[in-house]
Each structure stands twice: as structure tokens, then as C-alpha cells.
Design goal:
single chain; about 290 residues; alpha/beta; D-Maltodextrin-Binding Protein, domain 2; 3 domains; five-stranded mixed beta sheet
């Protein structure tokens, strides 16, 4: 069993498609298929069922997946420890961030870090708060940068910034949306598990306005999709001031004027995993911005 075989297995399992997994790993489909076949043959086990052009995990494959992820996570930790012997001249920083942070808050901070440490390679994945937290807990990534509240004793949580939330609607609804009429408003929301949605719920709850009692007329998977729907008149929403700034400036959206409490941004890392110099340097820079 080799690390490459494990990486192929995990990637195929996550994507449920050999060709897409091979492309993600920068290898040919035949190489990826051969790695899976070698793993299955050596251990006399069937890890995947082939259904048409699709591929799904067998019961044995599902049982093996968390073990394979754990081994790869330990390998990544070992590599990080060895990389630390070179200081910050070289290294790899594996980040995952929620949409608001990744799209608006983080890019200038990554650029500033890269200017100081050009030898540190940075990879950034995108996921909502729930997904980002899972990536760190499972050891796939070094840091999660999220806006949702996360309480887990396995995680070290550090506040790195804050954001302002805005209740917005389409320009032609200006003056019609007030705290008193929110119960009758149509809501456009992010999906459950999104930090933006949980922050909106918490902000309204602080004002004795219980969002969960109202049904969302529309649930969408991205900030931009929510914003576009609201601009088109689908309802009201709560989004980051960073996200809606341009639309407010152009008049495509109207700020309803509801004062909402700020929401914090957090960096999450696994308490039991090696804290590399690259991760520490990045956290120190975030603390200073």
C-alpha cells in the first residue's frame, strides 16, 4: 500500500468518478484505475462498485475511507514537520475558507503574506462553515477560516477579524421593509451549515426576531446567487457588508437600516496536529491586520 494509492482511493471516493479524480491528481485515468486495482488485488477486497459510468463505495470501501484519510493526514503532518527544518524558506499552507472570507476578506491578506514569504505555497479550498470545520477535524487541511460559531474541544479557535451584516432588499422595496414587517417578508437565504445563515439567525435572535420560525422562500448555495435573487425582487436577505457593498453603491440593493451586531471571523486548527512555522506565521500576520 503506497501513499499514492491512498490519495487516488480517497479522491475517487470523494468525487465518485475516476476520470475527474485523475484530472484532479494530474494523472491519467489508466494510472488512477491501476492504483485502485492494485490496492484491491493486494488486499483481496472490492472497494468500489462500478455502476454504468459511475462508481460508488462498497461497505468495505466506506469502512476504509476514514482510515485512509487519517493516514494521509499523518503523512501531511510528517511532511510539515520536516519542512519546518527549513524555516519559512519553503513550505505549504493548506487553507479552507467560507465564501465571504475567501471571496472578499482573505485575498489581500494572502497577497501580503506571499510578499513576505514567497517560498510558502498556499492552496485554498472553499466550503461553508460546517464543511470547512470537517476538513480540519479530519486532517485534510491546516486551517479553516470561518464566520460561523464553532464549538468543538478538538479545535483551537482564534478570532482574526470581524464583519458587519446588512439587511438588504431590492431598490424598489425601499421603505417597505421594516423590523415590523419582517414576519411577512419573503426571505432568500444561504443553505443550512453556512456561516452567513447562522450569523443571520443569531443576529436576528439578538433583536428578538426569530428567523427559524419564518420559512425561507428561496435557499441558494452562494452569496452571489442570494444577492442576485434579492436584486431581482425575490425577497430580503442578510449578507456581509463586504458582499453587498458594490450593489448598494450602484443602487441595485437597498440597505433596510436595521442595525445588526458585528460577527467575528475565526481561524480554526486541530489542537493535536503539528503547528508548522508557516501556519504560525500566517496566524501572526492575521492577528496584525
Amino acid at each position: 500500500m503506497t501513499p499514492e494509492q491512498l490519495r487516488v482511493f480517497v479522491t475517487v471516493a470523494e468525487m465518485q468518478h475516476v476520470t475527474r479524480a485523475a484530472r484532479a491528481l494530474n494523472m491519467t485515468q489508466s494510472t488512477a484505475s491501476a492504483a485502485i486495482a492494485a490496492l484491491e488485488t493486494r488486499h483481496d477486497v472490492t472497494l468500489f462498485d462500478r455502476i454504468g459510468r459511475g462508481i460508488v463505495l462498497t461497505e468495505d470501501g466506506r469502512a476504509f475511507l476514514p482510515e485512509a484519510r487519517a493516514v494521509l493526514a499523518r503523512l501531511a503532518e510528517a511532511e510539515a514537520m520536516l519542512a519546518d527544518t527549513r524555516g519559512l524558506a519553503r513550505g505549504h499552507l493548506r487553507l479552507v475558507a467560507s465564501q465571504t472570507i475567501a471571496g472578499y476578506w482573505l485575498p489581500p491578506r494572502i497577497a501580503a503574506f506571499r510578499a513576505l514569504h514567497p517560498g510558502i505555497e498556499i492552496s485554498l479550498d472553499l466550503g461553508n462553515t460546517r464543511e470547512a470545520t470537517a476538513d480540519v477535524l479530519q486532517g485534510r487541511l491546516d486551517l479553516a477560516l470561518v464566520e460561523g460559531e464553532v464549538e468543538d474541544p478538538r479545535l483551537e479557535k482564534r478570532r482574526i477579524g470581524e464583519d458587519q451584516l446588512r439587511l438588504v432588499c431590492a431598490a424598489d422595496l425601499a421603505g417597505k421593509i421594516t423590523p415590523e414587517t419582517l414576519d411577512q417578508a419573503d426571505w432568500v437565504l444561504r443553505e443550512p451549515g453556512s456561516g452567513t445563515r447562522s450569523s443571520a439567525e443569531a443576529a436576528l435572535a439578538a433583536l428578538d426576531l426569530d428567523l427559524p420560525r419564518r420559512s425561507a422562500g428561496l435557499v441558494l448555495p452562494s452569496n452571489e446567487a442570494v444577492m442576485s435573487a434579492v436584486e431581482a425582487g425575490a425577497g430580503v436577505t442578510i449578507l456581509s457588508a463586504l458582499v453587498v457593498a458594490r450593489s448598494l453603491a450602484t443602487g441595485a440593493l437597498h440597505d433596510c437600516g436595521l442595525v445588526l451586531p458585528p460577527r467575528p471571523f475565526f481561524a480554526l486548527r486541530h489542537r493535536d496536529h503539528h503547528l508548522s512555522r508557516a501556519v504560525q506565521a500566517f496566524l501572526d500576520q492575521l492577528d496584525g491586520t
